[in-house]
Structure formats: structure tokens, C-alpha cells
Write a structure and sequence with these properties.
By secondary structure, the protein is mainly beta. Helix content is 10%, strand content 32%. The protein has a four-stranded antiparallel sheet with strand order 5-2-7-8. A hairpin with a 6-residue loop joins strand 3 and strand 4. The longest helix has 7 residues. It is elongated. The termini are far apart.
Length: 135
């Protein structure tokens, strides 16, 4: 089971108290495979500017924020996870951003580099994903 918890504010930095709803689109087996998850909705109201869900079963789900619904995959985690990375991972790739890369793990940039140039780096940047090629 996984708890989703994240501070929620408006653009002005004011705590947002929008009701957030989590659910599955259709019946599915539990993550542990010992039961069935139903489409019953779980409604969560942020308290003190923080959205915190009860334990949720890992796997595909939906989150409804206002009138917008997002597809998410709830990970199996013993510690609380943030909601935004789950929403971001399920968003479509923007069609008007050439070279778009979705950041799913703290990467600041991606660099194409020859294997020899990479080998010559004395201290590779830990925030850069290097894609090497022969040359």
C-alpha cells in the first residue's frame, strides 16, 4: 500500500483546498493479487496545505482534480510519494517541443557524446544523462 502526500498551493502560494478524487476506471486485481479493486472513489481534501491520501493499492489509477482527470500509476512504496511525478509521467508528450525529454529522476540535461570524449571526462556531471556513441 502507498500513501501519496504533497503540499498543494495556488499560484499565489495560498493553501489549496480542492477536493481530489482517486479511483480505478474498472475492476482490477489488487497489487498483491489476493482480491479485487473496485471503482469506488476515494476523496481527499488537503489539510493545512498538504494533500495526504490513505493507503492506496499500487497499480493503475485515475486522479480527478476539479474537472480534469489524469491517469497515474501508483508505485509500491513504504514511504509517502509525491503526486506530481505520477501525474507528469502519465501526460502526453508535448507536440510543440522538439527534443522533449520527460524528467523522471532528477536529470537536468541530456548530452550526446562520443565514447572517447566520455572516457576523457574527469568528473562527469551527475545531473547529466550521457548518451554515448562510437566515433
Amino acid at each position: 500500500m502507498t500513501v501519496i502526500s504533497e503540499p498543494i498551493t495556488t499560484l499565489a502560494g495560498v493553501s489549496d483546498r480542492t477536493l481530489v478524487t482517486f479511483y480505478v476506471q474498472a475492476l482490477r486485481p489488487t497489487f498483491a493479487g489476493v482480491g479485487i479493486i473496485t471503482p469506488t472513489r476515494v476523496q481527499v481534501l488537503p489539510v493545512g496545505g498538504v494533500l495526504t491520501t490513505p493507503d492506496l493499492d499500487p497499480g493503475p489509477a485515475r486522479v480527478c482534480w476539479g474537472t480534469t482527470t489524469y491517469r497515474i500509476v501508483i508505485p509500491d512504496s513504504g514511504t509517502p510519494v509525491a503526486l506530481w511525478p505520477l501525474i507528469d509521467a502519465g501526460l502526453p508528450v508535448p507536440s510543440n517541443e522538439p527534443g522533449f525529454v520527460r524528467n523522471a529522476g532528477g536529470i537536468a540535461r541530456i548530452q550526446r557524446i562520443t565514447e572517447s570524449a566520455y572516457a576523457a571526462l574527469t568528473t562527469p556531471d551527475p545531473e547529466t544523462l550521457y548518451i554515448t556513441f562510437e566515433g
